[in-house]
Amino acid sequence: MQHVTAPELAARLADPAQEQPLLLDVRENWEFETCHIAGSTQIPMHLIPLRAGELPDEREIVCICHHGARSMQVANFLERNGFENVTNLTGGIHAWALQVDPSMPKY
Q1: pLDDT (tens digit per residue) in 42-60
Q2: pTM of the model
Q3: 65 is annotated as an active-site residue
Q4: Which of 34, 58, 75, 95 has the greatest number of beta carbons closer than 10 A?
């Protein structure tokens, strides 16, 4: 599993020359509704085993949660199930709010 910081991910997302990853937000609905990175796909962590088949094999997947722990578990699960290009957002959406978008609500 790879790791990416919030500023690194923001730079990649802002660069049209870079291939864009799938942003997989694994938080619960209320968390996602509170704040999320634009363009994210939300699948709550407990549904990943049921819905992993909906995820692309060929595209990088960046897993996102509140602080990075749940998303790391999901990233490990995806790797064990054949996904080869999985990255965890270090510090989660909280780090994004602190380091990239201070206007984003925090909880």
Answers
A1: 999 999 999 999 999 899 9
A2: 0.97
A3: yes
A4: 75
Find out whether 85 and 63 touch, Cβ atoms under 8 Å: no
Encoding tokens for residue 70?
Answer: 């749940």
Set 65, 72, 89, 97: catalytic member = 65
Quickly tell me which residue has 């910081």 as its tokens: 5
Burial class (CB in 10 A: 0-12, 13-18, 19+), 42: middle
Alpha carbon distance 64, 66 (integer Å): 7
**First-to-final CA distance of the chain:** 27
Q: How far apart are CA 10 and CA 48, in angstroms?
A: 25
Q: Which residues pair with 3 in a beta bridge?
A: 88
Q: What pLDDT digit, counting tens, does each position of 63-101 carry?
A: 999 999 999 999 999 999 999 999 999 999 999 999 999
Q: Token pair for residue 71?
A: 């998303």
Answer for the pair 50, 78: CB distance below 8 angstroms, yes or no.
no
